[in-house]
Design brief:
The structure holds two protein chains of two kinds. By secondary structure, chain A is mainly α. Chain A has 16 helices and no strands. The two termini of chain B are about 25 Å apart. In chain B, strand 1 and strand 2 form a beta hairpin. The chains are: A mainly alpha, B alpha/beta. The interface between A and B is medium-sized, with 35 and 30 residues.
Chain lengths: ~300, ~240
């Protein structure tokens, strides 16, 4: 029994350096990325992460074209194109008065098409698969260093701007009235999102890095009503999913990104069915809670309203 | 000397002129009611006073530092499903002194508890905002402005969708604040509230503003005499100055 467990859980890690590096990378990302997802979810911007993930693609592709499979070049390209798209979308929506999500959607579609075109110009379809869906084999020491740095910076910055972010989420006008630069906080936050998506694309791929951000956060919503609880739970879910997904991909010979994200997805589905708050089970158990739940969902639509005004 | 003075202020919203030639002082230690029909420019004026909308012409002279200006928005604009407790929201009123980084100490928590007791929400301290009634939320938001130690407080229809007990408590707290010298500006719709609360009235209509004593305004525009139970919302649609 112990032998089987050892063979299943430990041997892949003790025998193969790339598995160890991938695991460390996954755990580091699991520490930094889910809190960002929690804030995205609470601000009604759950799909923003997705759009951003597409936005980094042309930069990654350009880095790939110019520098080959070089991590610094691809990451730098990714961060730059992500920030440019976020800035353009924000600028266009402010200039035209249209909602930011429509500008964002337009720009990320352009980015996606441009990115895929760029990759196919310079490489084979194998390269495209690597960029889009990630590869644990690609995580070498320099990649690990980059991921660890980005994650440490993220955790530190989040701690520093935590109160400002919370106040800004709840009532942006309060902060503006106080003379605080809420635009700066918003921009810094989006910058962190882009940075982490770029760090995550090595293991998870550009398209799936956002999964580790959003799924643990949305799953945690069914278990906790407190911000600390949401963040802690999301981190735990992300760590379990990263570890489990890596082992699964090793044993079954599957790509690592989808395995990790699907495990996180299973955690979400389980939470939606059996979670403590507003889940299917919770509603069946105490039907009185239903109007309350409907009410809170109703009020959660108002911030999007508000953000556009 | 008044902390807040308007001098020939012209305001526009999205390029469309809203108010023009607005002059006058908001008295300190008194409650000024801001009334007018929908679209008359009440919210625009409040935004301008908060420093969020620069005037096209004229001056808004406000000697209150930015961090001592507080405003109580209409509840609808807040995301009250945010996972935050009543006490935490009241504590965000320490922003002017603490900013994003400084830690809270016991004295601040004590002050927050006193404020919550004054507003009758002590028993809700650890409840999430999403579970509160409209009136309770309004009291929590007022608690934040008390924590801020505001010298200038702007309120946007604080009595909309709240229960009778809340109306009483808020009225009392606002009166106390005025007695302590705070300058209060309240957007109001209800004649009865106006009669109870206001020391002065600024009526906005047709892009202009005019100052009144509440008594005079009630006599001129109120359709029912003061004191009767059935005071209806002011119909200011056709008011000419």
């Amino acid at each position: 029994m112990i032998d089987t467990l050892d063979a299943l859980l430990l041997v892949p890690l003790t025998d193969y350096g790339f598995m160890r590096r991938a695991l460390i990378a996954g755990l580091a990302l699991s520490l930094a990325v889910p809190p960002l997802g929690v804030f995205l979810m609470l601000r009604g911007m759950s799909l923003m992460g997705d759009a951003m993930a597409h936005a980094i693609l042309p930069g990654v592709a350009l880095g790939f074209l110019l520098g080959g499979f070089s991590l610094p070049a691809m990451s730098l390209g990714g961060v730059l194109s992500g920030l440019i798209v976020a800035g353009l979308a924000g600028g266009v929506s402010q200039m035209t008065g249209h909602r930011e999500d429509s500008a964002m959607a337009s720009f990320y579609l352009i980015s996606l098409a441009a990115g895929v075109l760029l990759v196919s110009l310079g490489g084979s379809s194998v390269d495209l698969t690597h960029v889009l869906f990630g590869s644990i084999l690609a995580v070498d020491s320099s990649a690990l260093l980059l991921i660890a740095t980005v994650c440490s910076v993220t955790v530190l910055l989040l701690a520093l701007m935590f109160r400002a972010l919370v106040v800004e989420c709840l009532d942006p006008l309060f902060l503006r009235g106080q003379g605080a630069r809420s635009g700066l906080i918003h921009g810094l936050f989006l910058g962190l999102v882009v940075l982490n998506l770029t760090a995550g694309f090595q293991t998870l791929g550009t398209l799936m890095a956002v999964g580790l951000m959003m799924l643990p956060a949305t799953a945690a919503r069914f278990w906790s009503k407190r911000l600390e609880g949401l963040m802690g739970l999301a981190i735990v879910v992300a760590m379990l999913a990263s570890t489990g997904g890596l082992l699964l991909s090793y044993h079954l010979g599957l790509p690592s990104g989808p395995c990790i994200i699907l495990l996180a997805g299973i955690a979400y589905l389980f939470s939606a069915l059996c979670g403590r708050h507003h889940s299917l089970l919770a509603r069946l158990r105490c039907p009185k809670a239903v109007p309350d739940a409907a009410d809170s969902e109703d009020s959660s639509t108002s911030p999007t309203h508000h953000r556009t005004t | 000397m008044s902390r807040l003075h308007l001098q020939d202020v012209r305001l526009a919203q999205g390029g469309r002129p809203v108010l023009d030639g607005l002059t006058g002082s908001f008295p300190d230690g008194a409650i000024t009611a801001l009334i007018g029909a929908n679209g008359a420019g009440k919210s625009t004026l409040v935004q301008a006073i908060m420093g969020l909308l620069p005037p096209m012409a004229g001056r808004i002279e406000c000697s209150v530092p930015r961090e001592r200006r507080a405003w109580l928005p209409q509840q609808l604009v807040l995301d009250l499903s945010f996972p935050m407790s009543v006490e935490e929201l009241v504590m965000t009123g320490t922003w002017p002194s603490h900013g994003a980084l400084r830690g809270y100490c016991a004295a601040h928590y004590r002050k927050a508890r006193e404020i919550m007791a004054r507003l009758g929400i002590s028993h809700l301290a650890h409840r999430p905002l999403g579970e509160l009634s409209g009136g309770q939320r309004q009291r929590v938001l007022l608690g934040r402005t008390l924590m801020q130690e505001a010298e200038l407080l702007l309120l946007d229809e604080p009595f909309a969708n709240v229960d009778g007990e809340t109306v009483e408590i808020i009225t009392q707290v606002l009166r106390d604040m005025a007695a302590q010298g705070v300058t209060l500006v309240i957007v109001l719709h209800d004649l009865e509230q106006l009669a109870h609360l206001a020391d002065r009235v600024l009526l906005l209509a047709e892009g202009q503003g005019q100052w009144f004593e509440p008594q005079v305004l009630l006599e001129r525009y109120g359709r029912t005499p003061r004191g009767t139970a059935a005071l209806s919302p002011l119909d200011l649609g056709g008011v000419a100055l």
